[in-house]
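hi support,

uploading two proteins for the ticket. first:
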Amino acid sequence: MTRQNKQRTLRLFALHEFIQDHFTKSDWIKVAYLTDSLDLIEDHPRLLRSLDFKDDDYEGNSLQVLSKLISESSSNLYEIEHFIEAKKATMHRPLREVTDFISTVQSHAPERVITFAPDVFRIPAKPVESNVLSVMMPFEGRFSGTYTAIRNVCDRLGIDCKRADDIWDNSILIQDVFDLIFTSRAVITDFTDRNPNVFYETGVAHTLGKLVIPITQSVGDIPFDLRHHRALTYLSNAEGLQKLEADLEKKLAKVFS
């Protein structure tokens, strides 16, 4: 083994030791984007799964993937090293005092609050925007009439209406979704057809304490655990969408007054 190859191998081992102890699923995905290796990391049959379940083979899986990344391009080694250095810097940074209150379902911070650090998302350095309404719904053409109806109401009330496909601030779509919910005053969620992404986004909004306004074409599409929340029902025809606009206008006028 040449001296250069030996140094490269030692750098590989040092990276692997840190990755094994400190990497999260989110870190692997970020590395995938940095090295243009999303298929390798997401399609690996065991890497992320063994990490999630803390299986014994994660050590070998992570070394295998890391070795392949570095063998494919010498620049990948530098990219991963720089990413890890940045991660180390944030790990040793002292925690700042938490003063932001981003929930909108209550007007004042409660006596008891908790601090949490999500793994899948980054907390955006953005304030809550008092005039922003976000909409969580399937990105399908047949919901375009529903979204148009919501935007019509927002235009009349002077509300800034946004959907995740209206923005592209991050390379990962779910981060844009999280940022949008985080900064919104209220969130409309359309439960029609029991879309799993909308269910997930509703859970995020509830966890952040956002004011959630459910809508649906069928009450039966609302999950059992959420049926105690009042929802606006509508039909997707012209008359139904006109009624949706009227119902939403009454609701949003109160929320954004």
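and the second one:
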Amino acid sequence: MRKLKSGLLSGLVVAGALIAGLGGAAAEQIRIGIANFGEHPQLAASIAGFKKALAENGFVEGTDVVYTESHTNFDASLVPQMIAKLQAEQPKLIYTVTTPVSQIAKKALAGSGIPVVFTAVTDPVAAKLVPSWESGDEGMTGATDLQDVAAVMEFTKKLLPNAKRFGVPYNPGEANDVALLEKIKEAAPAAGFEVVAVGVDNVNEIQQRIASFAGKADVIYTPASNLLQPAVAAVSAAARQAGIPIVNSDDGAVRNGVVPASFAVNYDQVGMNAGKIAAEVLKGKDPKTIPPSRPAYADHAPLISKKAMAAFGVEIPESMADCGCIVD
């Protein structure tokens, strides 16, 4: 009887250990790697939105998911090393932020079995991340920040009714910038604009290249460029000297009184779009079957700075006085 009782207790202990082990396995957190290009408000918002959407879909940070975040301070030469470190942790998914990071990750992670969801990519087809806008690629899909260029120009015409020449500084070495410039050129005739494009290869050229717009452009539109946005204060200073107002693709610089106006994509929403896609992938959906998402018109918003408009010597049109988009 004592042996039977002892055996029964022993069996219960083993069973309990097995159940505890199974419970521990069930509670094991999913690891997600986040490969960012550098610290910038737009990119930070896309990461925050990503986490928010995942939490809303049952993947809560600290409970269900643990994130490893890394960035290279916008140094493309360090991206392969960053991707390798994230890959070594064997994550269930890697979230890549910006086109350069996503392009390098696509090559580095090919055949690894680790799915990639990208964000802050303007044209994933031109960047060769996906074969078309209708589908993802093997192990990769994501959310784009493709702006409604026609809406940007419509807003610019309302703000600056007499503007006819639309200046666009861009980085010729960045796929996002080149793709967006092509879309701007396509939309310009219908909006009544002539496009004046100037290439900027590095931050040391900003003063000279922006100054070259003098007498050639009536407004400068600064795209969501990984070269230009971190240096938007320098772009603005050069444009102010040239007497050319700026419409920016990011509203942060408007809120800070650095540039006069913006018509911007909400990067928190872009990140949420990516997070919803990531949730589908984590639940077993093949990335190849998920088309890259685009921001809806409602995901854009205008903003005007009274302070910066005055600094550029431009008056806010009466027609926009009640737009609800003016900050001090």
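thanks. also noticed: The chain has a mean pLDDT of 90.
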